[in-house]
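User: Just a sanity check before I run the rest of the batch. Below are the structure tokens for the first item. I only need the designed sequence back.
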């Protein structure tokens, strides 16, 4: 398995400890697995690793010591037009378990014994939990204002937690400074391309569970780990001839932190410069997404539409989900708020699916 630089095309063995290429580009994975084939899905395995034949993994044994049954989350109806994929029914209560399980399996394969990561909470909890299972030391950096419950959960997994004053983007800078100074492995959900081998299973599961892909898929976008994984999985289904066209992807940004939405509206290839405002949707409050150019390129290629989650509708959306028995965190409720906004802008939008990406018990401030 090889890493390839997204900027200069340089190749590096996947066992590298370098978080990014010497030129500054982020790593992608060189495609080596066979086309998606339903006959090769391991239906005896009830986790996302049932799709391991189509995932770039270092070996076929490591995942077995790391998995906690992540994936294969149910799809339920919210109403006649909108379905919910219940990704908060994961071992750590968020979709980030998909990427964390794949990434920490990779860390075990290449002999990593200690990692650091920056996170707004859910990715930190996921990496901490899978590190605990794998016996890997873990240190997580979170921005000030992160839900106290998420911090408690990270610590409960045995990880050290550093609460960094300032924005989410500043928190990432502080963590990366430690990586540069000490050479510790950066198990980051944005930088490390193995993470996306987990998040792309989101698309595989939808196709397998429904026997098709809905006409519309609404997905939150901060750093884009689920967005890019979804696109990657859909591309593989398209290449395999299992779907005829890409669905309409609807990308959600917080009203007070929308560098990708602004860039898309302006036809720009790089994220717009923004000053993030306080938002309940802390999980997507990313002012400077490191894979922003890649996200925007995907958006242009597939006609992705961006939409705001109005801040004053996040709590009403959460209440509406609670009234249907679904208790989610604020960032997840922003998906429904954005769906309402999208319907106001574009009209009724039936056959739509979104993710319930984080559990409500993690974000009660």
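Assistant: Here's the designed sequence for the first item:
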């Amino acid at each position: 398995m090889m890493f390839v630089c997204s900027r200069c095309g340089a190749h590096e063995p996947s066992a590298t400890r370098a978080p990014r290429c010497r030129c500054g580009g982020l790593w992608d994975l060189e495609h080596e697995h066979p086309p998606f084939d339903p006959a090769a899905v391991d239906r005896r395995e009830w986790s996302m690793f049932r799709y391991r034949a189509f995932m770039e993994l270092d070996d076929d044994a490591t995942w077995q010591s790391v998995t906690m049954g992540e994936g294969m989350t149910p799809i339920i109806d919210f109403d006649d037009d909108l379905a919910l994929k219940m990704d908060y029914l994961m071992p750590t209560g968020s979709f980030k378990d998909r990427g964390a399980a794949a990434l920490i399996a990779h860390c075990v394969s290449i002999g990593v014994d200690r990692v650091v990561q920056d996170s707004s909470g859910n990715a930190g909890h996921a990496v901490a939990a899978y590190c605990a299972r794998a016996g890997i030391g873990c240190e997580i950096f979170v921005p000030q204002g992160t839900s106290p419950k998420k911090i408690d959960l990270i610590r409960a997994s045995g990880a050290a937690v550093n609460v960094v004053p300032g924005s989410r983007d500043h928190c990432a800078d502080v963590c990366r400074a430690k990586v540069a100074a000490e050479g510790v492995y950066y198990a980051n959900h944005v930088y490390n391309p193995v993470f996306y081998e987990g998040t792309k299973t989101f698309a595989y599961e939808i196709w397998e569970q429904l026997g098709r892909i809905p006409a519309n898929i609404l997905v939150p976008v901060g750093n884009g780990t689920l967005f890019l994984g979804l696109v990657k999985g859909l591309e593989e289904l398209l290449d395999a001839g299992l779907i005829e066209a890409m669905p309409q992807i609807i990308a959600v940004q917080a009203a007070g932190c929308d560098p990708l939405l602004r860039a898309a509206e302006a036809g720009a290839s790089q994220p717009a410069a923004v000053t993030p405002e306080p938002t309940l949707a802390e999980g997507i409050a990313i002012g400077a997404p490191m894979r922003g150019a890649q996200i925007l390129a995907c958006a242009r290629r597939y006609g992705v539409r961006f939409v705001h989650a109005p801040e004053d509708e996040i709590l009403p959306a959460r209440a509406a989900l609670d009234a249907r028995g679904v208790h989610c965190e604020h960032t997840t409720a922003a998906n429904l708020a954005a769906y309402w906004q999208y319907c106001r802008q574009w009209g009724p939008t039936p056959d739509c699916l979104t993710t319930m990406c984080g559990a409500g018990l993690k974000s009660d401030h």
